[in-house]
Design a protein that fits this description.
This protein has about 425 residues and is α/β, with parallel strands linked by helices. About 40% of the residues lie in helices and about 10% in strands. The protein has a six-stranded parallel β-sheet with strand order 3-2-1-4-5-6.
Length: about 425
C-alpha cells in the first residue's frame, strides 16, 4: 500500500511517515512545498538530510499564487492521485479536495482553528494582501475539510469548538487518537551536552545552576479570539510562578531560558512583565543561529543541560515541546486538561499546573530534589516510549490504515 503525506507542520508528518516505513510494509511518501519554512523540513530533525533526500521525500512547487486562486492546478494533485491513501495537515485539505483518493485530515492546530475562519480572524494578518489572501485560502480550506473522508483530531476544546462551528458531521470525526510521533533514538538525553561549545549552552552554564527552559513562543494575549484558537500560552503564569519560586526558595543561581525570535508575538510584553517582577537577572534570552529559531536537532543538547522544561499554560492542550522535553528525561511543567488526557491515556507524567502559586510550589520541590527531577524525567521518557515512539504509536496508524485501505481498490497509477 502506498501512503502519501502533505502538510508537514513541525515535521509531524515526516516523523509519522518515517515511523511507518520503519514499522510496517507501507510505502510512505512525504511531499514538501519548495517554499516551506525551515522548521517544516526534515533536516530540522535529521540534519544529514540537508545533503539530499531519500526517494520517498519529494519537494516541488505545490503551493503558490496559482493554488490560492485555483488549487486544482497544483501539480501535487496528480502526484497524490497515485497513492492508495492520503493524509493531510496544514493547507493539505485545500488541495486534497481535488484528489480522488481516500483523504484523512490530521489536525495540527491553526489548520482547523484559524484558517477555515478567515473573516473571524482577519486581525491575525497585518497587511491587506495577507488579509485578502487568507480569505481566499481560508474558504478553500474550509471547503477542503468538508471533503476529507475522516478527521483525525483530539478532544481539546479549540478543536471541538472549531469542528462544531464548521458543522462537520460527527460520523466523519474519528473517535481514535492518532498521537504525534518522535524518533526516540534522536530525541534522547545527551550526558556530554554540558561540554558543548554551543554559545547558548555556554551562557546557560555560566549563568545558572538550576534552569527552567521554555522554548515556546510568547503568546500572552488572553482575549476571546486567542483562547478560541489556542494561540494563548499564558507565559505570564510561568513568569509569575517563577517569581513565587524565587521568593520561597531564595535560590541564588536559578533562571528561565527563553528563545529570542520573531515568532514570539508578545516578546515586548514579556520583557516588560519580567522587568516588573524583578526577574531581569534570572532570565536568559538565547539567540538562535538563524531568524526562525533553533532546529529541533539543535534543541536536544539545550534540553539536556536544563533541569526543567515549561511549555503552555493556556487552553489545556500540549504539543511538540512537551514531548521533546519528556523524551530527553526532563520534568515538564505545563497545564493540560485532565479530562481530555484521561480520554487519551491511561496515565501521563506532565506536571500540570495553572496558577503561579502551584507552579512556584512545583519548582521549589524540583529545585530541592535532584532525585525527584530524575524520577519525573524517567517517567516522562517511559511515557513517550510507550505512547509516542515509532514502535509505541505507529501501530495505531497501521491498524486504521489497514481498515481504510481494505475498503478501496489498489492504486491505479496515473500515466
Amino acid at each position: 500500500m502506498r501512503i502519501a503525506f502533505f502538510g508537514n507542520t513541525c515535521n509531524n508528518l515526516y516523523q509519522i511517515a518515517k515511523a511507518l516505513r520503519h514499522q510496517s510494509d507501507y510505502d510512505a511518501h512525504l511531499f514538501l512545498d519548495d517554499k516551506s519554512d525551515p522548521q517544516q523540513l526534515p533536516e530540522s530533525d535529521d540534519p544529514e538530510l540537508a545533503m539530499g533526500y531519500p526517494d520517498w521525500i519529494h519537494k516541488g512547487p505545490y503551493l503558490g499564487y496559482h493554488t490560492l486562486v485555483a488549487p486544482w492546478l497544483s501539480p501535487l494533485i496528480r502526484e497524490l492521485n497515485k497513492f492508495d491513501l492520503v493524509i493531510l495537515s496544514g493547507y493539505g485539505p485545500m488541495l486534497g479536495q481535488f484528489v480522488n483518493r481516500p483523504k484523512m485530515f490530521l489536525v495540527t492546530g491553526g489548520d482547523l482553528t484559524v484558517w477555515p475562519f478567515p473573516f473571524k480572524y482577519q486581525s491575525f494578518f497585518n497587511t491587506l494582501p495577507k488579509k485578502v489572501g487568507q480569505v481566499v485560502r481560508g474558504l478553500w480550506q474550509r471547503r477542503g475539510i468538508h471533503h476529507c473522508d475522516e478527521i483525525w483530531t483530539q478532544p481539546f476544546s479549540p478543536f471541538i469548538q472549531a469542528l462544531e462551528n464548521l458543522h462537520v458531521e460527527s460520523k466523519r470525526i474519528s473517535n481514535r487518537y492518532f498521537p504525534l510521533i518522535l524518533d526516540c533514538d534522536k530525541f534522547r538525553y545527551i550526558p556530554e551536552a554540558r561540554q558543548s561549545s554551543m554559545p547558548a549552552i555556554a551562557q546557560i552554564r555560566e549563568k545558572f545552576d538550576f534552569t527552567v527552559f521554555c522554548p515556546s513562543r510568547l503568546m500572552m494575549n488572553a482575549d476571546e479570539l486567542m483562547r478560541a484558537t489556542g494561540n494563548w500560552k499564558a507565559n505570564e503564569t510561568l513568569f509569575t510562578g517563577f517569581a513565587n519560586f524565587l521568593q520561597r526558595s531564595k535560590a541564588q543561581r536559578a533562571g528561565i531560558v527563553l528563545v529570542d525570535r520573531p515568532a514570539s508575538q508578545d516578546s515586548q510584553k514579556g520583557r516588560a512583565l519580567i522587568a516588573d517582577l524583578g526577574l531581569q537577572d534570572n532570565v536568559l534570552w538565547i539567540k538562535p543561529p538563524r531568524e526562525f529559531g533553533f532546529s529541533r536537532d539543535e534543541l536536544v543538547p539545550i534540553y539536556s543541560v536544563c533541569d526543567v522544561v515549561a511549555d503552555d499554560f493556556g487552553v489545556g492542550w500540549f504539543g511538540c515541546v512537551v514531548l521533546e522535553g519528556l523524551a530527553i528525561n526532563r520534568p515538564v511543567v505545563s497545564y493540560v486538561d485532565q479530562g481530555a488526557m484521561r480520554q487519551l491515556y491511561d496515565w501521563h507524567p506532565i506536571l500540570s499546573h495553572r496558577t503561579p502559586e502551584t507552579i512556584g510550589d512545583c519548582l521549589v520541590q524540583l529545585w530541592q530534589s535532584p532525585e525527584l527531577r530524575a524520577q519525573h524525567g524517567e517517567q516522562g521518557r517511559r511515557w513517550v516510549e510507550q505512547f509516542h515512539s515509532f514502535s509505541g504509536a505507529s501501530k495505531i496508524y497501521v491498524q486504521r490504515i489497514d481498515e481504510l485501505t481494505s475498503r478501496v481498490p489498489a492504486t491505479q497509477t496515473v500515466p
